[in-house]
Amino acid sequence: MNFQNIAPVPKYREILGGAIRNSKKQTKEPRSKLLTTHIEKKLSLVIRDFPSFDSMNDFYREAIAQVVDVAKAKKALSSINWAIDKIKQFSKETDLQGYKQNLGRISSIMKRIAPHLELLDDVRKALKDLPDIKKLFTVCIAGFPNVGKSTLLSRITSSKPEIKDYAFTTKRLNTGYFEFRLRKIQVIDTPGTLARFDKMNKIERLAFLALKYKSDIIVFVLDPTGNLQRQKDLYSQIRKYGDEIIAYISKSDICSPENVINASKELGIEEYFTNPEKLKRKIISLI
To answer: Counting CB atoms within 10 angstroms of each CB, which of 139, 142, 177, 198 has the fewest?
Structure first.
């Protein structure tokens, strides 16, 4: 779902000012009719752009709840719908009411929904930060920061994530794709260490939700040069969120074969991969 397409929500003065200017056009329509039609159209566009919070899948429902107050957002949308209904009613009464009287009534309604319009624009900005996770077969790459997850993503997909040499480099959910027999496969690089949910930051919570709801396959990236006990604990946690888990050992080019074998034994991993292409073939065999 792509939230980038939600247009900025105009302020009430912007909508009202545009409606007043529109009502001065030389047409056969009464000024009151032009006024109400313009505002009704602008408010309807606001409603159209926002997703239905009640029809979200589990991932997006919980992800959205991490970044916005859903109850307040729904209340704001309801207020906009109320305003549209009232303005439609005024539109039917244009022959009975003068332009100035209608303008006064509409101005009053617009002032009432002004804070709701501002809140919805804040919601729009928050939703823009959410990842566009598509309804595709999905592979989630998991592991500690700086173990090589983003590098692996770039090796098995066409994604070119920014890669730096320090921990916690991934500030969002990076996604990449590859195709197999005309089928598109989605791969997500998930940051975070699966600490208690209330101790996770926003990006870590989104990563957790991706693992929980979106992963068909989880690739656990093990760094043999890192703290094996901590990675073992994380591996045990991750096994709760997927039936199909593949181990990939990174940095094997700078480790001795003995270090690689010892790391796999420490985590109780019997099958593992050190070559991205072989890992990709394994993923394909499970699709």
So the answer is: 198
Do the beta carbons of residue 27 and residue 34 sit within 8 Å?
yes
Q: Are residues 73 and 24 in the same domain?
A: yes
Q: Are strands 174-180 and 183-189 parallel, antiparallel or unpaired?
A: antiparallel
Same domain assignment for residues 144 and 235: yes
Look at the chain and report how many structural domains it folds into. 2
Name the token pair of 204: 């870590």
- 217-222 vs 183-189, strand pairing mode: unpaired
3-state secondary structure of 133: coil
- Long-range contacts, 150-153 (Cβ 8 Å, 24+): 150/174, 150/189, 151/250, 152/189, 152/219, 152/221, 152/248, 152/250, 152/276, 152/279, 153/187, 153/189
Q: Are residues 282 and 189 in the same domain?
A: yes
Q: Note the Cα 191 to chain centre separation in Å.
A: 15
Q: Indicate whether 210 and 104 sit together in one domain.
A: no
User: 220 — phi, psi (to 5°)?
Assistant: -95, 120
CATH number of the domain residue 270 falls in: 3.40.50.300
pLDDT of 179 > 70? The answer is yes
CA-to-CA distance for 211 and 199, rounded, in angstroms?
Answer: 17
Among residues 106, 51, 90, the alpha carbon closest in space to that of 73 is found at 51
Instruction: Count Cβ atoms below 10 Å from residue 228 Cβ, excluding itself.
Output: 18
**In contact, 211 and 241? CB cutoff 8 Å:** yes
pTM equals: 0.81
The domain in which residue 24 lies consists of 3-128
